[in-house]
Amino acid sequence: MKQYTLKITDTPPTDWSGVEKAHVDSFTWGDGALSPRMYGQLVYVKNGSAESGLYVHLFCDEKNPVSVETKPDGMVWLDSCMEFFFSLHDAGMEDDRFVNFECNSLGVSYIGFGIVGDRVFLRDIGVERFPVHVHIKEDGWDVFTFVPEEDLKKMFGLDDINEGTVMTGNFNKCDENANAPFGTWSPVYTPQPDFHRPEYFGRLVIEG
Predict the structure, then answer these.
(1) For the segment 138-195, what is each residue's pLDDT rounded down to a tens digit?
(2) Residue 153 CB coordination number (10 Å)
(3) Engineered SS bond to 24: which of 9, 11, 82, 183, CB 3.0-4.6 Å?
């Protein structure tokens, strides 16, 4: 199982250069040489304020991302799309619920929550959409988002989030309109592309 370590800090990240990268380099369903390079980064901030929560950075070296979806929770996976799926639960417990965050280069996101076959949008459970910031650069594009700690606790029924919390997830890249190969960080072994497979999520180790 793939493993990524995310640090607990007391200050929101402003410089991601020293943060571990989770490279999307598994291409079960196609030739990885035909796909742009992508990676994800995570930091957990815990300082007792509204800044506490999960900070996510996604980067792809795609120089001309093509995106047409402009409706929140629309079909962004058809566009140049980067994704982060994740789950949290207490040690010793099982929980099949996960969040799927998907975003195109216009900053339009699709965010679902639930289990495979039974998904809802955040608005359906009284959770605000995660803020999204996209930067288009000469060498690619970045996505930044933040999931408040209180929302994480609410979604996953947790009293606290710390080094004892079990976290799993995956980083994904797709672009169905371009017929580009689907890539993942943690390998997914299904006959057809399918990111909604928590049994293939890698470990995201929360470390102080």
Answers:
(1) 999 999 999 999 999 999 999 999 999 999 999 999 988 777 889 999 999 999 999 9
(2) 15
(3) 183
Q: Which residues neighbour 24 within 8 Å (Cβ) at sequence distance 6 or greater?
A: 37, 38, 39, 40, 171, 172, 173, 183, 184, 185
Q: What is the tens place of the pLDDT at every residue in 2-58?
A: 999 999 999 999 999 999 999 999 999 999 888 999 999 999 999 999 999 999 999
* Closest alpha carbon to 115 in 127, 97, 95, 133: 97
Determine the Cα–Cα distance for residues 56 and 206; give it in Å rounded to an integer: 14
Identity (one letter) of the amino acid at 184? T
Q: How many residues are recorded in the chain? A: 208
CA pair distance 202, 135, nearest whole angstrom: 27
Residue 36 DSSP class: -
Rounded distance between C-alpha atoms, residue 63 and residue 138, angstroms: 6
pTM here is 0.97
